[in-house]
Amino acid sequence: MTDFVAWPPEFAERYRELGYWQGQTLGDFLAERAAEHGSRIAVVGGDNRWTYQQLDERATRMAHGLLALGIGKGDRVVLQLPNVAEFFEVVFGLFRIGALPVFALPAHRHSEIEYFCRFTDAVAYVIADKFGGFDYRTLAARIPGLRHVLVAGDPGEFQALDSVPADASGPLPDVRADEVAFLNLSGGSTGVPKLIPRTHDDYLYSVRESAEICGLTTESVYMATLPVSHNFTLSSPGVLGALHAGSRIVLTPAPSPDIAFPLIEREGVTITGVVPPIALLWMDSPARGRFDLSSMRLLQVGGARLADEAAKRVETELGCKLQQVFGMAEGLVNYTRDDDPWDLTTTTQGTPISPHDEIRLVDADDVEVAPGEVGQLLTRGPYTIRGYYRADEHNATAFTKDGFYRTGDLVRLLPSGHIIVSGRVKDQINRGGEKVAAEEVENHLLAHEGVHDAVLVGVEDPQLGERTCAFVIPRSPEPSPAELRRFLRERGLAAFKIPDKIELVDEFPYTGVGKTSRRALAQAIKEGLEAR
Ligand code: AMP
Ligand code: DBH
Fold first, then answer.
1. What are the DSSP calls for 370-384, one per residue?
2. H/E element, 487
3. Which residues is 223 bridged to in the sheet?
4. Which ligand lies nearest to the CA atom of residue 276 in the structure?
5. How many other C-beta atoms lie within 10 A of the C-beta of residue 290?
6. Is residue 209 classed as helix, strand or coil in its secondary structure?
7. What domains, with CATH codes, occur in the chain?
8. What atom of ligand 1 comes closest to residue 424's alpha carbon?
């Protein structure tokens, strides 16, 4: 089994010659930023206000502390921190010793975390004590095989983050920029989530370019509104882009207007990135009138398709410019630009970061579609992975022979090069930016003894774009939808993956079209529902 699939040497050489891959590690990146912006505030989170210098020192201390605990180069560490300042000292501490953070989301529960820990042979798990009404220590107690559980806050039976040894002597391991820096998560479309290995070189290239495209400067205040470990919030331009530019990062524990708006006012936030449902929530919120949001320059919206009608409301209702962002943790990120005309900003998902992002639009037979036609988006480039972590079999189909990533997105290209996302071919439901792999949820449902068969489909929803509906053929004794929902929660599935609706049926509706595959079946059900 291959852990990491590298770029072919001729591509790596080209990206270096172009100056895209600069040979800098993320650990050195922070040190360089701290040397330049030392006394500026880098991170504001809760009661913490750390300067670049303080963050740099904390990261170094953490690096030595982690080493002293026996965590070393190449080790995997599952990280599940909410938007707290400690995220940064741990992540950069890990980068500095060449250990790989595995970026879990706060919403993940036992099913996902146990899998990440097992699949990556993680040596440690880093959590906050409690967040959003959930005690992560109860989750940690159920994960076997971990050498360390480190807790930001009250450690309970585990070890407090701030108790890791503070001795900062001795050398740190040698970390190379072409090595993998961390493992990101993919929404995925199969039974288990996929892990995405990103190198220091490739990630920093996308971060520097993103900071430039989004106009970040030392005057910018970037608010992390979505979870900070999400690829959008990390790198598009995200918190890393903010650090690159010497900007200030503000962490909001929740995106709701009652929490985010006062922070925008207090900290003078100039830019943030949200998913479409949050953009709608903010525009529709009566709280908008009660807070001064006039510092906001740019609202980035991505993660799921923003309806054109909603896009057109952003500027007038929130008093800032809109930027659409179409990205993926696997790599390719597209942005609408500051000088794009209004109609392109409000109806397209932008253009790729790099002139060396290669884009192909193909039909089901991998044949290039005619210009202007909708096709499946394939991409290859200086920051798009060539393979998932430990996934030889899946990689054989998720990538073409010549290394293009099959995004599973259906898109159209305008003559200007702007991309319009019009659908997808992957077995995934995009629930307002939260990706749900149909097969993963179906497998959990099938584990219930009262379930004969199950299919998860996405149905249109005005707020979320789409929500999930499970069609279940029961066997006796027949479980109720409430019982099935409880069953999924008890199996430790993240809340956003629990079906919004569960319908018990005798047979799958609308199977007339000859079900050649589960996906054909799901598609038939969906079309039947839409026709109804
Ligand atoms: P992931 O691979 O889990 O990081 O999710 C990336 C996927 O999110 C993309 O392949 C798209 O399907 C979807 N996505 C992200 N941004 C947008 C957007 N602006 N419009 C439509 N879909 C998006
Ligand atoms: O949805 C995504 O994964 C996403 C959206 C916007 C992303 O990874 C990104 C920007 O970098």
1. PTTS-EEEEEE-TTS
2. helix 481-490
3. 250, 272
4. 1
5. 13
6. helix
7. 26-175 (3.40.50.980), 428-531 (3.30.300.30)
8. 12
How many alpha carbons lie under 13 Å from residue 16 in its C-beta half-sphere?
12
Residue 407 CA: which ligand 1 atom is closest? 10
Ligand 1 pocket list (CB less than 6 A): 186-187, 231, 302-305, 324-330, 349, 407, 409, 421, 424, 430, 435
Query: Residue 512 — pLDDT band, cuts 50, 70, 90?
Result: low
Ligand 1 centroid to residue 327 C-alpha, Å: 5
246-288 pLDDT tens trace? 999 999 999 999 999 999 999 999 999 999 999 999 999 999 9
CA 317 to chain CA mean position, Å:
27
From the CA of 328, give the closest atom in ligand 2: 8
> E strands, 419-464, where?
419-424, 428-431, 434-437, 451-461
Q: For strand 419-424 and strand 405-413, is the pairing parallel, antiparallel, or unpaired? A: antiparallel
pLDDT for residue 516 is more than 80: no
Please work out, in degrees rounded to the nearest 5, the angle formed at the alpha carbon of residue 487 by the alpha carbons of 481 and 489. 105
Counting ligands in written order, the one closest to the CA of 353 is 2
User: Which mutation among 112, 184, 278, 328 tests ligand 1's pocket best, with the greatest number of atoms within 8 A of CB?
Assistant: 328
Residue 409 CA: nearest ligand 1 atom is 12
| DSSP letter for each residue of 103-143 | E--TT--HHHHHHHHHHTT-SEEEEESEETTEEHHHHHTT-
Centroid of ligand 1 to alpha carbon of 323 (angstroms): 15
327 lines ligand 2 (CB under 6 A): yes
Tokens of residue 412, six digits: 């159209």
> What is the pairing mode between strands 331-335 and 298-302?
unpaired
Q: Which residues have a Cβ under 8 Å from the Cβ of 110 and sit 6 or more positions away?
A: 139, 142, 143, 491, 492
Query: Which helix or strand (DSSP H or E) is residue 360 part of?
Result: strand 358-362
φ/ψ of 502, rounded to 5, equals -125, 125
Q: Helix 276-284 to helix 308-318 angle, to the nearest 10 degrees?
A: 50
The share of the chain scoring above pLDDT 90, in percent, equals 92
In eight-state DSSP terms, residue 191 is S
For ligand 1, mutation pick of 103, 210, 305, 351 (most atoms within 8 Å of CB)? 305
pTM here is 0.97
* Residue 233 Cβ contacting ligand 2 at under 6 Å: no
Please state the atom number of ligand 1 nearest to the C-alpha of residue 349: 19
SS3 2: coil
Residue 243 in tokens: 């650090």
The strand pairing partners of 299, in sequence order, are: 272, 322
Ligand 2 atom at minimum distance from 230 CA: 8
Closest CA to 56 of 28, 84, 76: 28
Counting beta carbons within 10 angstroms of the beta carbon of residue 326, is it exposed (0 to 12), middle (13 to 18) or buried (19 or more)? buried
Q: Which residue CA neighbors atom 8 of ligand 2 most closely?
A: 328
CA 327 to ligand 2 center in whole angstroms: 4
Compute the distance from residue 289 Cα to the ligand 2 centre, in Å.
30
